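Inner membrane protein
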Amino acid sequence: MKGKTHVGIGTVTFMSIYDKIPGGFSYIGLIVVIIGSLLPDIDHPKSIINRYILPFKNKFAKVAVYICIAVVVLYFDYFYTNEPALKALGLCLICIAISSHRNGLTHSLAGLGLFTLVCGYLDKKYNIPGIEYYFMIGYGTHLLCDMITRRGVPLFYPLINKKYRLPWTYNANSKWGSAFEDLLIILGIIYIIYRFPGIF
Ligand SMILES: [Zn+2]
């Protein structure tokens, strides 16, 4: 599934339930939803987030960059903070470095849990209320949406290495799959325009 489709579905979900989550609507919340909806595909060197992080969009650059960031985070944590969330972040970064697309941690519930732990730390440290909920909306809808594509996701990685998908799936790389995603985005934009006046 394309990055923009994940952003669209994450945003639509947020606009439908923001009044039911702690923190309600906020622009920071919307940005966190968007980041959460793009984050699982950080395991792909050509994904939207990696376009801004990696100097070269290939596997080697992905391994080198994420191992370096993990070393910096773990070094900082070891000498200065001793904070479980930063250890979790270091572990996530190592997993991002070594896993190939849709085969590892970022497309699993374990990845959702570890990154949510990091969000909880940011909430406490920088006082951003509700950041965990915003993040879970974006990240959770990404995993759910990848489950309606034929490739499925390793939901219970690293315990079970099987890929899970819903009973109805489509081929995201086909012409019809692409048209289906474009239709979802158009419907999503219409819904967001309809819901937007309600937040003021
Ligand atoms: Zn994905």
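thats it. The chain has a mean pLDDT of 93. Residues 59-81 form the longest helix (23 residues). bye
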